[in-house]
Design a protein that fits this description.
Low-confidence stretches: none
Order of helices and strands: EHEEEHEHEHEEEEEEHEH
Largest sheet: 9 strands, mixed
Number of domains: 2
Number of strands: 13
Helix content: 25-40%
Radius of gyration: 22 Å
Strand content: 15-25%
Length: 275
């Protein structure tokens, strides 16, 4: 835990004017020094994408309590990159993202811009916590405030390993009750595409990609999806510092390297089944 007030960078993927980012700020600003760098408009589903095809522009915006706040006309990952390299005078102790409107449980972590912002920080060895609501309504801060900063404080006192972040989802109907919190594993459920076909006035068909939640038949009893359905907050530690599949290396290293290193370059490899 920092000896002084922690310095937190807030971002999101719903845009700087979304209710969720205001709720997140309200939950932490009494306990920490905060700076906000968030997308100018909604960038849900942006994942870890970044912007190469247009210039990025940073605008300062007014915020309560004289909190410094800025928008970037890019993705959450762009926001973190620009925050670290342009806006901030020092590295934050943690990046917090959200509160996202809609679940980021299960395999949705691979698409989420809310989590993408924290991944960008984790790649720079800055820990992060992403917060999301399964409900699509405005987040009920009065029910979640007892959990948000205490979680942040715990992982400042007990730091996540380099390259790791925490993905936190609040269950449906959080306005009514929260049964507790479970440290869980990532589930298998996901939003499956469900394209909505429409017709342009000129007669050309077009589609809204859309989606519907698809639970996995063999969902692990310790997964975030499982615990969310039971009414618990689910917190999943995700590690992005090492993406190598070591089992594939262990199983294939000798065979592949021997086969592809035993012939002259000009001849090319023989079939691995030619022996």
């Amino acid at each position: 835990m920092p000896s002084t007030r922690p310095y937190l960078l807030i971002t999101n993927d719903d845009g700087i004017h979304a209710p969720g980012i205001k709720h997140l700020w309200q939950a932490v600003h009494e306990f920490a020094d905060v700076i906000i760098v968030a997308p100018q408009t909604e960038r849900s589903g942006a994942g870890l994408s970044i912007t190469w095809n247009k210039p990025l522009v940073i605008h300062e915006v007014p915020w309560e309590g004289n909190t410094p706040a800025y928008t970037v006309n890019g993705t959450p990952a762009d926001c973190v990159k620009m925050a670290i390299s342009v806006v901030l005078k020092k590295r934050p102790h943690m990046i917090i993202s959200g509160v996202n409107r809609g679940s980021n449980a299960g395999r949705t972590v691979l698409y989420s811009g809310t989590i993408g912002g924290c991944i960008e920080g984790a790649l720079k060895h800055i820990p992060g916590i992403a917060f999301s609501f399964c409900d699509l309504d405005a987040p009920p801060l009065e029910m979640t405030k007892p959990y948000i900063y205490p979680l942040i404080r715990h992982f400042l006192e007990h730091p996540l390993p380099p390259g790791s972040l925490l993905n936190v989802n609040f269950p449906h109907n959080s306005k009514e009750t929260i049964r507790g919190l479970k440290l869980a594993r990532q589930g298998m459920g996901q939003w499956a595409e469900s394209p909505d076909r429409r017709t342009h006035p000129e007669g050309m068909p077009y589609y809204w990609l859309g989606g519907k939640w698809t639970p996995h038949e063999q969902e692990n009893a310790e997964s975030d999806v499982y615990w969310l359905e039971k009414g618990y907050i689910a917190a999943v530690p995700l590690h992005v510092g090492e993406l190598t599949d070591h089992q594939v290396i262990s199983k294939n290293k000798s065979l592949v390297e021997q086969h592809f290193n035993e012939f002259p370059t000009s001849e090319g490899p023989r079939s691995v089944h030619s022996r």
